[in-house]
Amino acid sequence: MACALASEDRRLRTAGGICPGGGNVSALTPDQCRQVLIYAPEESEFTTQHERAGRVELARQLGALKGFEFGGLWDQSHFRQAKPYFLPSKALRPHEAIELGVSSVADLYGGVVPHDFVATKAITHGLITPCATAPAGWSHAFSTSVQEVVLPGISAFSAEDGMAAGLALLKRHPVRCKPANATGGRGQAVVRTMAQLVKYLGAMGEDEIATHGVVLEENLSQVQTWSVGVVEVGDIRASYYGLQRMTRDNRGRNAYGGSSLVFARGGFDDLLGLDITVSIRAAIDQARHYDQTAFSCFPGLIASRRNYDVVQGLNGQGQWQSGVLEQSWRVGGASSAEVAALQIFQARPKIGSVRASSVEVYGNCTPPPGAVVYFHGHDADAGPITKYSIVEKNGHADV
User: Fold this and answer.
1) Number of domains in the chain
2) Partners of residue 176 on adjacent β-strands
């Protein structure tokens, strides 16, 4: 990796009997010698300076919540140390969880999935037929159970199935095509004709479709996308809803601009107890059903961060629709706001709700007073960019 995330003298050195900061291991409690470690086995997971810096700051903030030191990037030397708390860049696979000693939500900020495809948007929809090509571990029960809380759509793992699915959907409405494992809207396109569908699937290629899958679903207009989720770190649990903001990057392209979220202490039931609109209640109910069904249908699924995108808008006939688009059981753009809210709940036990935001601004920007800055400077790839989290003044969401 281009930059070191932590110097060697900040690592827990059990061989020498020393914790970060110089304390003797025998004189400290186990938690005082535990560390938060970033797990990113692929260098491609940190391609920019602002991404690296943001992940480091998030690990430090999680460490503050847990009362642990930040220990940098995980490597084999950490096997000799007190059990770490992990911040993975992606949802872990079972072999990774076993290697790292991750067995419950207490061990990580993120998730563990039993199969690769479970971490992708492919699970949101069923297959074109029960006998269609599917990866090992595919759950027909899951897609059947969630079909009432998602948009009309089909997932496919072969170009032939993708073509059949697209043609079936095109009879009723324009179709949004999405690579199942892509994030941030990358690689998506709306097709309205068979020729456009053929071109899209051809560009993806047989190998990509077979390996990761393609999602085809009803396209909506005049959309609003809600983020709904539950997050827990230690003994603090919070649920939330809110909206993502889009902005323009330094090259004029659409880019993620942050999320403004309302948090409730506790789970989905506590979130539904807030004063919310009918459309927000629908989004929360749909996310909760999707969440509960996933944990029922995919044994081995573990997640301390459970985030769901719910889209609402008009279909091709002008009818209002609402449905879960995808799940995220890993660190995400709203994570800085989530941690900020958890810190408020930890520090002020009587507060039941709070508003917090994650913010990403391209160009020159001065972070406001009270912001926790994740990056502020010139990134070699993105140009000038500022990333921070902030809690609404006075904290409360219900006053």
Assistant:
1) 3
2) 190, 217
User: Which of the listed residues 89, 107, 132 is the one where a domain comes to its end?
Assistant: 89
Residue 210 lies in a domain: yes
CATH number, domain of 204, equals 3.30.1490.20
**DSSP code per residue over 236-287:** EEEEEEEEEEEEE-TTS-EEEEEEEEEEEESSHHHHHTS---HHHHHHHHHH
pLDDT greater than 60 at residue 183: yes
Any domain includes 99:
no
Which domain does 229 fall in, by range? 222-391
Angle at 282 between CA 280 and CA 285, to 5 degrees: 110
CB within 8 Å of 346: residues ≥ 6 apart: 65, 236
Co-location of 33 and 163 in the same domain: no
Neighbours of 21 (CB within 10 A): 9
My answer on whether 226 and 370 are in the same domain is yes
Would the pLDDT of 46 be above 80? no
- Between β-strands 175-179 and 189-191, what pairing exists: parallel, antiparallel or unpaired? antiparallel
Provide the phi-psi class of 87: left if phi over 0, else alpha when psi is between -120 and 50, else beta: beta
Cα-only R_g, the chain: 22
pLDDT tens column, 288-347: 999 999 999 999 999 999 999 999 999 999 999 999 999 999 999 999 999 999 999 999
